[in-house]
Known about the structure:
GMP Synthetase, Chain A, domain 3, two-stranded antiparallel sheet, CBS-domain
Amino acid sequence: MMTVRDAMTRSVVTVPLIAPLREVARLLMDNRISGVPVVDVDGTVLGVVSEADLLVKEQGPGAIQHRPLARFLGESKESRARLVKLGAITAHEAMTSPAVTISSGRPIHEAAAMMTARRINRLPVVDDGRLVGIISRADLVRAYVRSDDQLAETIRQDVILRILWLDPDQFSVVVKDGEASISGHVERRSTAEMIEHSVTMVPGVVDVHASVSWSTDDRKFEPTHSDAVFPFSPR
């Protein structure tokens, strides 16, 4: 299964807490990126300065929406953060913190889900507390745009061999227009089901047709027939 490590960019543009905001803006423009992690001397990610953070300062106080009765109840947490950004002159003052991060070993579909849920365009990749890369929406798009031959090889090597510890030579794997067809035989029904589930999680695979037979029904379903499958049929 493809992980964040396979899709991330390892060379990351970063800035320290004290970086002037003007310098941060220039880095974003020069590198054609929409955000930059803010790190300390040990490489720990403290936050992220994005184009959105810079736009808050550019738009001014009029762009901040105050909640009703703010005079009496106080500003919302979001409004207070945006007010701080208005006067920002350093990365520390402008950044969004804490940063939303992901580890390099996570499946890339988790990165996609996090970006969608948080409405962000990039995730710093952190292992053992240190920044090791960054993954963006563009990286995810590139990960999904792979040839049928590349997808078939990913299924054989990443799913069948590395995840399930099975011999890829014991299976027939064919991918056409992103639709994967896989057939073969395994000892247990649960393994057969796991093969189909794992293949559906491969980025770029749009559909899976699995015909994997099994010898032993370890699911303990009743009744157990030699030809009862979903969607597998033992031989």
